[in-house]
Structures are given as C-alpha cells and as structure tokens.
Amino acid sequence: MSRIVIIGAGQAGAALAAKLRGLGHQGPITLTGEEAAPPYQRPPLSKKYLLGEIGAERLYLRPAEFYAEHRIELRLGLRGARIDRAARVVEADGTAIGYDMLALTTGAVPRRLPAAMGGDLGGVHVVRTLADVDAMAPAFRDGARVLIVGGGYIGLEAAAVAAARGLKVTLIEAADRILQRVACAETSDWFRALHRGHGVDLREGTGLVRLSGDGHVRAAELSDGTRLSVDFVIAGIGVTPATDLAEAAGLTIADGIAVDTLGQTSDPAIWAAGDCASFPWRGGRLRLESVQNAIDQAETVAANMLGAGLSYDPKPWFWSDQYDVKLQIAGLNTGFDRVVVRPGEKAGISHWYYRGADLLAVDAMNEPRAYMTAKRLIEAGRSPDPALVADPAVDLKTLMAA
User: Single GO molecular-function term (predicted)?
Assistant: First the structure.
C-alpha cells in the first residue's frame, strides 16, 4: 500500500487527505503543516474572526478527532525543509518522512512591505494566518488610526472591519482604482462608494513612500505628499505561491508549481494543488487563489493519485463580505470586452462580463439569485442575450430558459 505524504495543512491539504480516505486508500497518509493549529478556513480571518464574531475553533475544517479516526497522521509545527526525490524522503525539522507519492499543498505567502520602506517596523501587519490576525487584533480599538496599503479584496475587507469597529481608516491604492486587477470599473465604483459611505478615507493613485517610527510604526508618508499619523498598518498587496520547497527540489515552476491536467508535477511521484499550483487552461496556464480551487483541485488530485485519470477543469467561484454586503463572483472575467449592469432587488446589483456574445463571469452584490443564475449559465456554457440581462423587468428564470 502506497504511503502518501502531504506537505501543507491548509484547505487543499485537508481536502486531499480526506478525499484519499473517502476513495478507499488504505495506505498511510501523513499531513504536515507549519502552523500549530489544525487545518482551518482562511477567508473568515479577515471577516468574522477579526470582528470577534467567531472563535478559533469555529475556523477548524474538521474536529481534531477526525484525523485520528481516519488514520491521517497530522504533524503540525513542521516546516518542509527539503525533498530528496531520489530517496523519496521529506526532511522536515530533522525528521525524515518517506513517501511513495508526495503532494504539495503549500499555499501562498503574503507580500510584505520592504524593510527599506519601514515594512519591518512593529505594528506593520499582513493578513494570511491565524497568528497574523491574532497579532493585529489588539490594535482594533475604537478611535485607532490604521493605514491599509492595497485596494484588493483583502485590503477592502480589513477596511470594512476596521470601520465597523470605529477605527479611523485610510486606504491607499497605487493603481488608478481599487480592484483594478480583478474587477471591472463598475464594480470598483460600487465598492469605492460603499467604503467612502462608511467613512473610509480611500485614496486611489496613491502609493506609500515610507513608514517611520521608533521601532513601532508612527507615521506614513504618501506619494501625494501627505504625512499621516498612524497606530498600525495592514499590507494587503497580494500573495506569491509558496514554491521554495518545490524549486529547491528541481521541480518545474511557472507562476507556481507547474502541474499537468491531472495535477502531476515534473516528477511523476509528486503532485500539487491549491494556491501554490498552476495548471493548463485554455491554451495557457492558470493559478487560482480560492477555496473552490483548493478543494476541487485537491480532490481531483486525490483521485488521480489513485489512478482515476481525471482532467481538472475548474468552475471558479469566489466571495467577499464587506459591511452588510455579500459579493459573490462566478466565472473568470479574463478577456471581457463588455459589462452589462443589472439592477436587482432593493439595493442589490450585478455586473455581467461578456466577451463578444459569450458570458464569462458575474459580480453580484447582495444579489444571490443573479449570482446563482449566472453561475449555472456559465457552468452550462450558455450565454443569454445581454439586452435581456440588462432589463430588470425580465425575470431571471427567463434567462435560464433563453
């Protein structure tokens, strides 16, 4: 019976281990993670957990006894230091773990502000792990001044929590608009108005020059000439795939650990899934940072490690919670050339992305019915007439039948 070792105890690693057992694998499974906590959900960290609405135990993907009951050896606090591909051994913190097949689910690491810019001062935080959020939580006190660097979803979610907690929030985005990399101008406009309506000082086209302080950050100099007094800073400037271990082992890297459609790396005994992996997609390569991809790709890899031969074809979906707004996204908007705006019920709205006549994706703000309709259409490869989508008098059921 093959011994399978999984490095990375996040969403993908946990899903892969559970799926292996669910598919009947009887051999040993070892799941290793760098953090002390068992596998947990990351999305609520910058939302309900930071707000104090849920405790750490509510984040855990499985109860602790699940791993023992399913004979999954969970080894926490270990760093995958080296892979000996010839011997098929992982060396982690002085421990050697042999494998027949290895899966890398190492995730991604947050980009940090450079030390030369003051990024190593105390009070400068990132949002990725439970420890990251625990470290910044005491600073979330009424009236505190926070600077958030980056207008992507992580930065906007942190701004929403901070504003809701009564902090004085300044958010800067170096690009011309927030969400520029991931969303259309209409979605950016909508969220800009939302945050400014909640008192966030949101500045686009504004970069950070430097942070300063006496060991702890006290001030920020911005590219517009402003000097701000701050109590702490959150950097939400993206992530990079965690490929160091794979690269040192000589595996092929291409915007992540390069895998084929099955999830296999350039070494047939090593597989990869989740935020760390890039895979073939529509003539190019794609790497997705989402819960959907972490679970679906990991479960496909689990099946393929057991010989299923399944090609991974993602059906992407994402979400973001900000204030009382739930943003739901289906599909990928890459290459869109038109956005159709559909007014919804009450204050809801949805933005439908088209390339020519083809529906690619949707952003739905407090519009769950529009989201579900668009998601089904996209997954079925169907594209309703944009004129029907734009007309709020046209029932969503009609779009499904069109």
Answer: oxidoreductase activity, acting on NAD(P)H
Token pair for 6 = 């999984």
Query: Residues 256, 262: contact at Cβ < 8 Å?
Result: no
Count CB neighbours of 362 within 10 A.
Answer: 27
Listed in sequence order, the residues at least 6 apart from 137 whose beta carbon sits closer than 8 Å to its beta carbon are 50, 52
pTM here? Answer: 0.94
- CATH number, residue 118: 3.50.50.60
Q: In what order do the strands lie in the sheet with 72-76?
A: 72-76, 29-33, 4-7, 101-104, 270-272
Q: Side-chain half-sphere of 383: how many Cα atoms within 13 Å?
A: 13
Task: Give CA–CA dist 148/156, Å, rounded.
Answer: 8
Please state the φ and ψ torsions of residue 399, each to the nearest 5 degrees. -65, -35
Please check whether residue 295 is in contact with residue 11, taking contact to mean a CB–CB distance below 8 angstroms.
Answer: yes
Paired residues of 143 in beta bridges: none
Q: How far apart are the first and last CA of the chain?
A: 52
Q: What is the CA radius of gyration of the chain?
A: 22
Question: What's the number of domains the chain is made of?
Answer: 3
pLDDT in tens, 212-237: 999 999 999 999 999 999 999 999 99
**Backbone phi, then psi, for 303, in 5-degree steps?**
-65, -40
Edge-to-edge, what's the strand order for the sheet holding 80-84? 80-84, 89-92, 95-98
Cβ proximity of 304 and 296 under 8 Å: no
Strand partners, 146: 169, 232
Question: Does any domain span residue 315?
Answer: no
**Domain containing 390: what range?**
324-400
What's residue 47's pLDDT?
85
pLDDT tens string 201-211: 999 999 999 99
Q: Are residues 190 and 94 in the same domain?
A: no
CA–CA distance, 338 with 353 (Å, rounded to integer) = 6
Quick one: CA dihedral 296, 51, 171, 120, positive or negative? negative
SS3 279: strand
Q: Please give the structure tokens belonging to residue 81.
A: 């230091």
Give every strand in the sheet of 217-222, ordered side by side.
208-213, 217-222, 227-229
Looking at the DSSP assignment, which residues form a beta bridge with residue 60?
40
